[in-house]
Amino acid sequence: MARTPQEAFETHLEALGSGDLDRLAADYSDNCIQITNRQTRRGKAGVKEGFAAIYAELAGAGEVQGVEVPVRVYEDNVLYIEWWADLGDMRCDGVDTFVFEGGLITIQTVKYDISKAN
Fold this sequence. Notes:
The chain is globular and about 45 Å long. The protein has helices at 5-18, 21-25, 43-61; strands at residues 28-36, 40-42, 66-75, 78-87, 90-101, 104-116. It is α+β, with helices and mostly antiparallel strands. It has three helices and six strands; from the N terminus they run H-H-E-E-H-E-E-E-E. The protein has a six-stranded mixed beta sheet. The longest helix has 19 residues, at 43-61.
């Protein structure tokens, strides 16, 4: 039986924390689409490129000291989240939408901005 969207997202959060791009890509379907406010990527290789770019941008802003996902709204196979990452002197705020099929992420939109922490 396929994972529920909730189970798939929890696995995705664990993979995000590991920084392992192969582990991250395993949560996505072969024909997935990842759309960010920077670029659109397709397939597992594209997801790995996308997360490598996000990790590099965050590392350039500061060391990740904490991440919170205070808003999670599930509706059938769709998840909307709002999140933030503490980067010391900087902060990253983001909004994602995920579409799940067969226990995998098929579509993800990501919008994030890095700014000076208050």
